Amino acid sequence: MRSQCDEVHPRCGNCTKHGVACDFEHPGIVDTLSPAETPRPTTSTSNCDSPSTNTLPPTPSVESTTPLPIYRNPEPLPLTNSSKSNRMMELKLLHHYTTITCQTLAISSPVSEKIWRDTVPNLAFTGAEFLADALLAVSALHLRSHSPQDQELIRASHSYMASTLSEYSARLGKGITEENAEALFLTAALIAFQSTASRIFTREDSSDLKDRSGRYSLPLSWFHSFQGIKAVVASSWHWLRNSGIVIPIIESQPALNLDLSGQNANFFGHLLTGVEEEIANLDEDPITQSLTRQGYQHAVAVLDWAHKIPHTGAPLVFLATVSRRFVELLEARRPRALAILASYFGLLKSLDSVWWLKGLARREVMGIVSLFDPDDKEWWPRLQWPVRIAMHEGDFIPPEIWGAEHTNDTALLDQGGQSGGYVSHIELVSQMFTAVQNMPPAIPDEALDALAQQSVLAQAQEFNRQMTSRNDSHASH
């Protein structure tokens, strides 16, 4: 049935009712189109009973006061040059992340790579803007590895990470919930990645590599960031344990099989020689003594395990698994903790081809070695392996230099055994947190979130320190 057009301006009643474009609303559109662009007459019935009027394709029903969608409006987008530049930068960063950067977040793990490429961006689009900012920050950092002097990429990397830290910390302050647990875990992981990867852009003579006394400064922000991941996981495990995003990422790591007995011969066993005497002399409290002993033993066990399967990404597990007590020992610059850390950086030499680890082993090992007296007969001999590895030229490290044949032992590499490793460990830690919460006096629900907040705060302070240092450096020039 044909209906008469009431010719009401700016949009006739029938066109408004049926949600189609009306010639009265933009009378000049059809006249200004080229012949090839002019809509062809259709056999369908027009809402406006005018033989010279052609209908445009239907549009969703909208209020008469609602402007037509952009694709209906011939007017140019009201974007300034600045907003256009920002828009193109975000498109560039998102494209680079989904095509290239996501592949570098997981080593030899197709399942994890697909999650970082497809699932994580989709989750970021559902309202987790802090996660989206983290993706863009990491992508900008990756692009900087190809163009280190690109000021736009430097600003983008810093700006998006600053925004991430601010919003992420605010969300933690409000508490972890079932709805945001996955996004917070992924953001914590990207913050840790950014903290680790940004170290490669620090100049050798930069104040970021030195403390107030001018000596080498340990990358403690790495450990603070990974402690933040552990806190988020432990406090929200009752939700994350069933996550189709988090569990595959956790299980994509090489199977963690540690010998914590300390009884068997191992490659880094010499780093534990004299540990009881040290604990007796420096740690008076029995609980602290136990934590110190466990911290050292666990760290060395991870080194021994990773040493056997270096090219699998296993050395990266060290940052995520060492205890909070071990981090405290590093902060106190205990010689034993420093020697263990030097050996860890020696292990990273096997991943020197990864863009965010390139050249890192040599610089960090030699930085740690500079903190020791060359005449120190106790510790200097224990530093020889990381120094030898760090100074080695070439991607392939011969077994006689590495110290042992790389193993293909299925007990070490079997991915199926991981549920008994990482996941079981997290289950245990989560149960411990739950038990503590149920002990009188009751700990507030926000207590666990505060652990993660402390790590984020430490990361934010480190970020601000680096930015201040860079600004001062630029000002001096």
From TrEMBL:
Coiled coil regions, renumbered to chain: none
Region (Disordered): 33-82
Gene Ontology terms, MF aspect: DNA-binding transcription factor activity, RNA polymerase II-specific; zinc ion binding
Biased composition (Polar residues): 40-49
Keyword presence, Ribosomal protein: no
Keywords tagged on the record: Nucleus
Presence of the UniProt keyword Nucleus in the record: yes
Name of the protein described by the UniProt record: Zn(2)-C6 fungal-type domain-containing protein
Taxonomic lineage from the root: Eukaryota, Fungi, Dikarya, Ascomycota, Pezizomycotina
